[in-house]
């Protein structure tokens, strides 16, 4: 099988690897739990690559990888991957390349997901909000990723919004991530064996007033993140993705409603039609892993 691409989406809870055709059709996938620690993550990722190679029945020369944290794409190192326990400056590409014999193209996981969303939605200009264990944004502007001079473009989850809020994993206090992420939902509404966001939205739909109040408060904070991205770079669309987005259309509707409420007293915000720009990442496709595979097309 020739012309295939391989991508890994490495997150705080799972490593998802895919083999795709050059056109983006997923041909095979492998999912394993994420361990903690740089060497442990590399070992698990290398195992996923080998299993994908077996599925593809083909040699794989390039592997695209999306990983949390600040990624130096030229050196293949990562910093501040706090939810994975990877040490700052860890030479991820070098270590995974040595373990697999492949050339590794490393990028931030939200960047990879933004590329995947742009390809699947047919958009060249979008902001992507990754609502997972943490919160991050990624930007595809005029068809190109905007990484920033320090590879920190889109790290809006670490903008402090509440000086009296909880301490964030990044060391600051009251970051946006602490109120608009999967971890934030879990702190307010434990899932009891079910994903916390799913449990929250299910309870609200079943008529729980407490759940509805928590849902609306969470949606308002996600709307803050949408507004922040929209007012900074004014993309054509803002896409909600990540684990929390598995809630589906109910999340988009709740956030769109919050955006409309926030614009009720502002003719300026109403003129921007932020609710109308809101999209949901395709739920039936591995957006981040697909985007990571697309990273591998770069020369």
Fold topology:
Layout: E1 5-10, E2 14-20, E3 26-33, H1 38-56, E4 62-67, E5 70-72, E6 77-79, H2 92-100, E7 103-108, H3 109-121, E8 126-131, E9 135-141, E10 144-145, H4 182-188, H5 196-205, H6 209-233, E11 237-241, H7 249-263, H8 267-272, H9 274-277, E12 278-280, H10 287-295
Parallel strand pairs: 1-4, 4-7, 8-11, 11-12
Antiparallel strand pairs: 1-2, 2-3, 5-6, 8-9, 9-10
Helix pairs in contact: 1-2, 3-10, 5-6, 6-7
Task: Count the E strands.
Answer: 12
Look at the structure and give the CATH class of the largest domain. Alpha Beta
CATH architecture verdict of the largest domain: 2-Layer Sandwich
Helix content: 25-40%
Spell out the CATH superfamily of the largest domain: ATPase, nucleotide binding domain
Q: How many structural units, i.e. domains?
A: 2
Q: Uncertain runs with pLDDT below 50, 5 residues or more?
A: none
Report the portion of residues in β strands: 15-25%
Report the radius of gyration as a whole number of Å.
Answer: 19 Å
Quote the CATH topology of the largest domain. Nucleotidyltransferase, domain 5
Largest sheet: 5 strands, mixed
Categorize the overall geometry: globular
Count the helices. How many?
A: 10
Give the CA-CA distance, first to last residue.
20 Å
Mean pLDDT: 92
Q: Could you say which structural class the secondary elements and strand pairing correspond to?
A: alpha/beta
Order of helices and strands: EEEHEEEHEHEEEHHHEHHHEH
Strand order within the widest beta sheet:
3-2-1-4-7
